[in-house]
Specification:
The complex is a heterodimer of chains A (466) and B (84). Chain A has 466 residues and is of the alpha/beta class. Chain A has 2 domains: 368 residues, 3-Layer(aba) Sandwich (Rossmann fold); 83 residues, ANL, C-terminal domain (GMP Synthetase, Chain A, domain 3, 2-Layer Sandwich), CATH 3.30.300.30. In chain A, 25% of the residues lie in helices and 27% in strands. Chain A has 10 helices and 25 strands. In chain A, strands 6-7-5-3-4-8-9-18 form an 8-stranded mixed sheet. In chain A, strands 11-12-13-14-15 form a 5-stranded mixed sheet, sandwiched between helices. In chain A, strands 16-17-19-20 form a 4-stranded antiparallel sheet. In chain A, strand 21 and strand 22 form a beta hairpin. The radius of gyration of chain A is 23 Å and the shape is globular. With 84 residues, chain B is an all-alpha fold. Chain B has one domain: ACP-like (Non-ribosomal Peptide Synthetase Peptidyl Carrier Protein, Chain A, Orthogonal Bundle), CATH 1.10.1200. Chain B is built from 4 helices and no strands. In chain B, helix 1 packs antiparallel against helix 2. Classes of the chains: A alpha/beta (466), B mainly alpha (84). The interface between A and B is medium-sized, with 20 and 17 residues.
């Protein structure tokens, strides 16, 4: 099974709008894609250093149409780390932009396309790629780890179909990129829109730059997606005052949006006649697991909604028994065709088949309400035992955040550590959390930190906290 | 008057130094959006929030997205009645 094999049917539709506003039709995109993909003579692994540009998307489609497996790597990834990944996975080809030309690897130039070059590596290790393996994606939480999630053709196709179905995507849609395409969230936007013959507006600039707003207006973007920090930016930019008549719907995923921002955007969007979808997912489930239908955005604030079409969700208690009453917290378990094959840690793992059999233990703790709508209440692994009581680090972070301070919580049992960016508030926060959570103050250490380390999607990098 | 202007310049510089955790020597006409890793979109959001707080102003979207350099910022912040 291959992906993107019937995009010809969209022929003269615009597939891509570039940063310089060039419109590229599906036929021209496929021409370019196949001119790159045809250089790959047999099924093999291609390392694909991506960037939100035409050459990049053309390569992505071309390699997949040619039946290759692709590892997606963001172009801002450090060269030493890429070199290490190449050593560990031994790809046969590398497709990369000019800005990565200083990458030190032994290889031969096979083809150049615009800003991109296709290189053939010189290793001679022969290994097997499982027939269903399509993509290798890094998990958003991991930095510096060579671990990839293995996604199959079926995973990608079923998730893109489900997303297109619940969002009602049509060929008239024009999503604009807000994140790198190596992010599962962005990739799912690209995949689901290509599937429906829509036009993707590609840019590498962020919401904090004028070009983004010019591109959204001039190209009549109908939608964009955002991780929580993008919504913080939209708030800072006073999105409620921005007039964008072409915008039909916006989606949120990639982490939990605060209740406050969620409620605020639900209201703003209703006021503007824009649909607002809060969604939930993991790279381990290709991208999406659940979504909150937009008509509930205001009444079910904080909920991640219901499973995507074709998926099933339930909760299990710590003994693995299914929870059958509303309001009881348990681990969220998901079943669907988008549950990925498993992980890979080196090239030998690429021969592995499906290790999950469609079942994913998300590691997230959730509850559901009387209407069957799920709400994530924490991370299973983000718990500490404080003097015999289980406490949720995310909940403490939320409490502090609600007081108006940026923080990150970690620590060990009986040693809760709160990293705070406001040195003057250390004592106040300590007594507040102690009071609120009924934890003895001697078990709480509040440490001043100038800035909470975060990755580009705004997730806290706990490993970088001292 | 001159004292106030000097103080504003110091305040402005201090916000950059603290928002990006950079040395004073990095401040200057060469300091532009995305020329240092700290000044990315997330850093920009923090910078604007800190400037707004320091000068007790509320910047318009157009000024936030035009704030492309240390130099340009003076002009934009000055629009809100801050003298440099």
């Amino acid at each position: 099974m291959n992906l993107f094999n019937d995009l010809e049917k969209y022929s003269s539709n615009t597939a891509i709008v570039t940063e310089s506003s060039d419109q590229i039709s599906y036929l021209d995109l496929l021409d370019a894609a196949d001119s790159i993909g045809n250089h790959i003579k047999k099924r093999c692994l291609v390392f694909f250093v991506c960037n939100n540009c035409f050459e990049s998307v053309a390569g992505y489609i071309g390699f997949l149409r040619a039946g290759s497996a692709l590892a997606l790597i963001q172009d801002t990834t450090d060269n030493t780390f890429i070199a290490n990944l190449i050593e560990v996975y031994k790809p046969e080809y590398i497709y990369l932009p000019a800005k990565k030309s200083e990458l030190q690897i032994n290889c031969t130039i096979v083809h150049t396309f615009g800003d991109y070059t296709l290189l053939k590596t010189d290793h001679n290790v022969v290994y097997t790629l499982h027939e269903n393996l399509a993509l290798l994606l890094t998990t958003s939480g991991s930095t510096g780890s060579p671990k990839f999630v293995r996604q199959s053709y079926k995973n990608i196709n079923s998730n893109a179909e489900a997303i297109a179905q619940y969002l009602g995507i049509t060929s008239n849609d024009r999503p604009i990129s807000t994140m790198p395409m190596s992010y599962t969230f962005m990739l799912s936007i690209i995949n689901s829109h290509l599937l429906k013959g829509a036009s993707i507006i590609l840019t590498n600039v962020t919401l904090m730059e004028r070009h983004f707003w010019r591109a959204i207006k001039e190209n009549n973007a109908t939608t964009f997606g955002g991780v929580p920090y993008i919504f913080e930016m939209l708030k800072k930019l006073r999105f409620e005052k921005v007039n964008l008549p072409s915008l039909k719907y916006i989606t949120q995923a990639g982490g939990k949006l605060s209740m406050e921002l969620s409620a605020e955007f639900a209201d703003i969007c209703v006021g503007k006649g824009i649909e607002f979808y809060v969604m939930y997912g993991q790279t381990e489930a290709t991208a999406r697991i659940s979504y909150l239908p937009c008509e509930y955005a205001q009444t079910k604030v904080g909920s991640v909604g219901i499973p995507i079409p074709g998926g099933k969700m339930w909760l299990e208690d710590s003994e693995g028994n299914q929870i059958d009453s509303a309001g009881v917290a348990g681990e969220l378990v998901y079943q669907g065709d988008n549950v990925t094959l498993g992980y890979a840690e080196d090239y030998l793992d690429l021969a592995k088949g499906d290790e999950n059999n469609g079942l994913l233990r998300t590691g997230d703790i959730a509850k559901y309400d009387d209407d069957g709508f799920f709400t994530i209440v924490g991370r299973a692994k983000r718990f500490l035992k404080m003097y015999g009581n289980r406490i949720n680090l995310d909940e403490i972070e939320q409490l502090v955040t609600e007081e108006g301070y940026d923080c990150a919580c970690s620590g060990e049992d009986n040693e809760l550590v709160i990293y705070l960016t406001q040195s003057k508030e250390i004592e106040n926060i300590k007594s507040y959390i102690s009071r609120k959570m009924k934890i003895h103050p001697s078990g709480i250490d509040v440490i001043y930190i100038s800035k909470i380390p975060r990755n580009e999607s705004g997730k806290i990098l706990y490993s970088e906290l001292a | 008057m001159l004292g106030e202007i000097l103080k504003n310049k110091q305040k402005y510089d201090q916000v950059f130094i603290e928002s990006f955790s950079i040395d004073e020597s990095k401040l200057g006409d060469n300091l532009e959006y995305s020329t240092i890793p700290e000044w990315d979109s997330v850093g920009h959001m923090g910078l604007i929030a800190e400037l707004e707080e320091a000068f007790d102003i509320e910047m318009e979207m157009d000024d936030i997205i035009d704030f492309s350099s240390y130099k340009k910022g003076f002009e934009l912040v000055a629009k809100y009645g801050v003298e440099f």
